[in-house]
Structures are given as structure tokens and as C-alpha cells.
Design brief:
Blueprint lengths: L6 E5 L4 H12 L3 E6 L2 H13 L4 E5 L5 H15 L4 E4 L15 H29 L2 E6 L12 H21 L4 E8 L8 H4 L5 H4 L11 H12 L10 E4 L7
Parallel strand pairs: 1-2, 1-4, 2-3, 4-5, 5-6, 6-7
Helix pairs in contact: 1-8, 3-4, 4-5
């Protein structure tokens, strides 16, 4: 098992990519802390992992609250003894409107969760990883963090910020043997695309807008995250790995 004896935090771990990744982390031998604002899905995840023989706890966490992030990490290290993997995954989309029509409050919310949440995860995970002697941080960006798209200004800006923040942190913490990478998923079958599925005109186009001609699964993204968290990626840092079926090149 590639993550045997490691401890991992997964934010947004109650659903979608976070859920799939937490399950795969556990199957690879890691101790898991599931962090989510949704207690029901978070506790359900812990049940699934423990029933399968893994170790997991749930900590209700709002990633924009620095005190809650600090508490999340403190509980994790108190429970398992150390922190080795931080998957900063929690995120939201925005209303599909032109930039001048987007409410300022919504802009702030998207930037806070998608970008500030990643910053706080890095900020408070790094000291524990220094103690452990190494670490792997993986941040969730997006295909739309690498290219623009109409009506997605807050989401684009937040996910683009994650890409640069990832590079910055990789430069800062490489000397401590802490690797920092990002993933850039394309259209993945999660709740965030539910509204797209209801659009009979757009969905046939969106669902095939990549080289493979289909949408991806959370499990396919989780495979990439596990790789970046493992020693197999020991010489990879500051990278953003596209998991988009060739969407960026389409």
C-alpha cells in the first residue's frame, strides 16, 4: 500500500472528488480525517472507511475560518500523531452570469472558499509537516483555472489563483521536503455540474468537450491525487496535473 502509515486530511471530503479520494487514501493505508461543512455526509464517509477496515475521523470544518482549520489539524495530529498529506479540495462554483452582474458578496464567497481555504490549509499544515520531516500538499484547481470561460469570473479567478499559490508554496517549502502540487479536473461527475446536466442544449456539448469525448469520474481524479501524495511523485512539486480528458487541448 502506497500510503501505509501516513495521515491525510481531505477537505470537502464528504462528497465528490473529496469522497472518492478519502476512500482511495484509506485503501492505500492512510489514516483519514474527513473535513466538511456537512456533518451527515462527513460522518457517512467515516462509517464507510471504518467498515472497510480503515481508520477515519470526521471534523466539521468551514475552510474559510482559520480557527476551524487550526482545530482540524490539532485534532488530526492528536488522534494520529502526525500529518503527512493535506488535500485542500473544498470548493464551490458561482452563478453563471457576466462579471458586471455577479454580486460582490458571491465573488467574496467563492474566492474565500476556493482560494483562501487553500491558503489556510497550507499555512497551518506546513508546521506539522516540518515536524514530520516531509509532507505532500495537493490543492484542487480546475481546467477553468488554466483557461478562461464566459460567466465564470469568480471561479476562474479563484482556481487560477490556486495554480500560482501552489507554485509559490512549492518554492517556499521544498527545502523542508514538503511537496506542493495541484490537480486541474475538467468536467467531472459531481454535484457542481448538476445544473449543466439540466440544460438540454448545452449538456450534449459540454459533456463531450474534450479529447476523450466524455466526462470524468471522481475516482479517476482520486487516482491522480493518490499518485501526487505518494512517494511515486517524490520529484514532482509545483506542478498542476490536468485530469480533464484532454479538455485543455480541445
Amino acid at each position: 500500500m502506497r500510503l501505509q502509515g501516513k495521515t491525510a486530511i481531505v477537505t470537502g471530503g464528504g462528497s465528490g472528488i473529496g469522497r472518492a479520494t478519502a476512500i482511495k487514501f484509506a485503501k492505500e493505508g492512510a489514516n483519514i480525517t474527513v473535513a466538511d461543512v456537512d456533518s451527515v455526509s462527513g460522518e457517512e464517509m467515516v462509517g464507510l472507511i471504518t467498515e472497510a477496515g480503515g481508520k477515519a475521523i470526521f471534523v466539521k470544518t468551514d475552510v474559510v475560518d482559520s480557527k476551524q482549520i487550526q482545530e482540524l489539524i490539532q485534532i488530526t495530529t492528536k488522534t494520529y500523531g502526525a500529518l503527512h498529506i493535506m488535500f485542500n479540495n473544498a470548493g464551490i462554483g458561482n452563478s453563471e452570469v457576466r462579471s458586471d452582474e455577479l454580486a460582490e458578496e458571491e465573488w467574496d464567497q467563492v474566492i474565500d472558499i476556493n482560494l483562501k481555504g487553500v491558503f489556510l490549509g497550507i499555512k497551518y499544515a506546513v508546521p506539522e509537516m516540518k515536524k514530520a520531516g516531509s509532507g505532500a500538499i495537493i490543492n484542487t484547481s480546475s481546467l477553468l483555472g488554466l483557461k478562461g470561460q464566459k460567466y465564470m469570473s469568480a471561479y476562474n479567478a479563484s482556481k487560477g489563483g490556486v495554480v500560482i499559490l501552489t507554485k509559490n508554496a512549492a518554492l517556499e517549502y521544498g527545502k523542508y521536503n514538503i511537496r506542493v502540487n495541484a490537480i486541474a479536473p475538467g468536467v467531472i461527475d459531481t454535484k457542481i455540474i448538476d445544473n449543466w446536466k439540466q440544460n438540454e442544449r448545452k449538456w450534449p456539448i459540454i459533456s463531450r468537450a474534450n479529447a476523450l469525448g466524455r466526462i470524468g469520474t471522481p475516482e479517476e481524479v482520486a487516482n491522480a491525487v493518490v499518485f501526487l501524495a505518494s512517494d511515486e511523485a517524490s520529484f514532482i512539486t509545483g506542478a498542476t496535473l490536468s485530469v480533464d480528458g484532454g479538455g485543455l487541448t480541445f
